[in-house]
């Protein structure tokens, strides 16, 4: 199953370079602190220096958790999972540091001509452990395009700063900060984490480093290089608009609406709730997968982030309580961390439809296979093969944010390979028990699931205890006869451009270019 390395192997580098997004997990040391997960999907922001060193360009968002946690303890984990082709998950465990916008270190990595609008820091990671695992539970998605909304809104905010500075040339020691400028946004929203830890420091009022004058033209370059399909979401559908004139009309409509929280001209600040609102429940129920982050309390411990994508495993009880069926994997980090401190965060991000990210912050507990609590929630006829625990979460904070950096993906199908793998191991246990007839201590065949739990699920990578009951349970598996269709790994590998007509591409491109030019002239008046 899982493998660990002391550096990034070549084949892992190749896998990473094919991915269109990644996830970042960090955590404070306090037992009351909130573990964070963030989705990152802007093209060209992740970089590999060598087998021990990676960095990414951190763009402005609704919070500053990553920087705050790195400032406190340095722990960070990056996750990549393959949505297309063979299943694969990669985790880069490391120690991170950051260089804020305007520092000499930042400028050495990101010259003005390559900087993305909204860029606020370089996150540098010294990778000391690399974990690979099967990714059998990650659904098939087909990549459609990167979103540009985050870049557009950030560039507009930077343009406000540029124009304010040009209008007030006398300001040298402290440049003006318009309310709709990016620097003012940093001061308002990026100087401390939700737990009160300090975030950006160089962005405070004494910061004088100016944005590049290239930002004004950069803003419109994102419009002109927009994806070939303009995304108009009607009941979750992505519609192509082949007409030059229709393209221009829709483009103008989408880029000038101010009332929609999804289409605002400014970076959308995150919102927090004490419970799960109804509209958030509706969003969650539409998603095909989610991510889980936990962390030990030790400053040397490894923060964990896991992808979950088996259909029918996530459940909402009420506005404060959710649970999911935890399937057997290559490790047992989540259970181990919950046993130690209870902190857990669940993340959902929308790949289709309006951009959206939801985080459920809570305290978690678990019920292992064979316990009365487990059996009360998961009956044999609804249990998934490989199920080892119920993860129950008391949600005390819900965070929503824009999701402007999450790419467009089209869901194709769920994988069944994890279920198939687990069903075979459970069948080995069933057959061994039938042959032995033992009652007090069921036999443990070498290729059975319970023996797998003994080998892989009894302690975390930091040595914290994991499962203690399930592997010894006398409850029997009841998966005999379940058959799963083989995964088709070519399902999401069809070329997107094969669907398009050259004349359509030319007409659409001209429409976008003309509209962008007219919009640019309008804004520069």
UniProtKB/TrEMBL annotation:
The keyword Disulfide bond does not apply. Signal peptide: none annotated. Gene3D superfamilies: Electron Transport, Fmn-binding Protein, Chain A. Coiled coil: none annotated. Residues 13-133, 281-401 form the Pyridoxamine 5'-phosphate oxidase N-terminal domain. It holds the Pfam family PNPOx_N. InterPro entries: Pyridox_Oxase_N, Split_barrel_FMN-bd. This is Pyridoxamine 5'-phosphate oxidase N-terminal domain-containing protein.
């Amino acid at each position: 199953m899982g493998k660990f390395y002391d550096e990034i192997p070549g084949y892992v580098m190749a896998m990473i370079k094919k991915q269109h997004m990644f996830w970042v997990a960090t955590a404070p040391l306090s037992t009351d602190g909130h573990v964070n997960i963030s989705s990152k999907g802007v093209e060209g922001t992740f970089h590999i220096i060598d087998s021990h060193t990676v960095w990414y360009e951190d763009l402005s968002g609704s919070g500053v958790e990553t920087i705050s946690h790195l400032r406190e303890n340095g722990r960070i984990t990056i996750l990549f999972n393959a949505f297309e082709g063979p299943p694969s998950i990669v985790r880069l465990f490391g120690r991170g540091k950051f260089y804020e916008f305007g520092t000499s270190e930042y400028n050495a990595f990101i010259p003005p001509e390559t900087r993305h609008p909204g860029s606020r820091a370089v996150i540098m990671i010294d990778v000391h452990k690399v974990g690979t695992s099967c990714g059998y539970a990650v659904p098939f998605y087909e990549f459609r395009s990167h979103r540009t909304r985050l870049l557009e809104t950030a560039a507009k905010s930077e343009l406000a700063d540029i124009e304010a500075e040009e209008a007030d040339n006398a300001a040298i020691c402290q440049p003006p900060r318009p309310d709709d400028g990016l620097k003012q946004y940093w001061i308002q929203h990026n100087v401390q984490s939700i737990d009160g830890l300090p975030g950006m420091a160089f962005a405070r009022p004494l910061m004088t480093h100016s944005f590049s004058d290239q930002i004004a033209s950069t803003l419109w370059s994102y419009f002109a290089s927009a994806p070939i399909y303009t995304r108009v979401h009607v009941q979750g559908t992505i519609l192509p608009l082949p007409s030059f004139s229709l393209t221009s009309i829709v483009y103008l409509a989408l880029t000038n609406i101010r009332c929609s929280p999804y289409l605002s001209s400014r970076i959308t600040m995150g919102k927090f709730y004490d419970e799960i609102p109804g509209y958030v429940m509706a969003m969650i129920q539409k998603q095909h997968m989610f991510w889980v982050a936990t962390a030990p309390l030790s400053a040397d411990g490894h923060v964990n982030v896991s992808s979950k994508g088996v259909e029918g495993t996530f459940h909402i009880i009420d506005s404060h309580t959710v649970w999911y069926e935890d399937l057997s994997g290559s490790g047992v980090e989540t259970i181990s961390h919950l046993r130690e401190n209870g902190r857990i965060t669940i993340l959902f991000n929308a790949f289709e439809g309006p951009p959206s990210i939801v985080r459920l912050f809570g305290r978690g507990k678990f019920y292992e296979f064979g316990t009365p609590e487990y059996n009360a929630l998961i009956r044999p006829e609804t249990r998934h093969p490989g199920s080892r625990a119920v993860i129950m979460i008391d949600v005390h904070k819900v965070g929503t944010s824009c999701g402007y950096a999450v790419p467009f993906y089209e869901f194709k199908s769920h994988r069944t390979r994890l279920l198939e793998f687990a069903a075979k191991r459970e069948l080995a246990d069933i057959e061994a028990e039938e042959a032995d007839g033992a009652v007090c201590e069921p036999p443990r065949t070498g290729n059975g699931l319970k023996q797998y739990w003994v080998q892989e699920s009894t302690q975390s990578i930091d040595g914290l205890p994991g499962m203690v009951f399930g592997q010894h349970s006398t409850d029997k598996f009841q998966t005999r006869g379940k058959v799963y269709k083989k995964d088709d790994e070519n399902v999401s590998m069809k070329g997107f451009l094969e669907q398009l007509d050259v004349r359509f591409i030319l007409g659409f491109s001209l429409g976008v270019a003309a509209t962008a030019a007219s919009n640019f002239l309008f804004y520069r008046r």
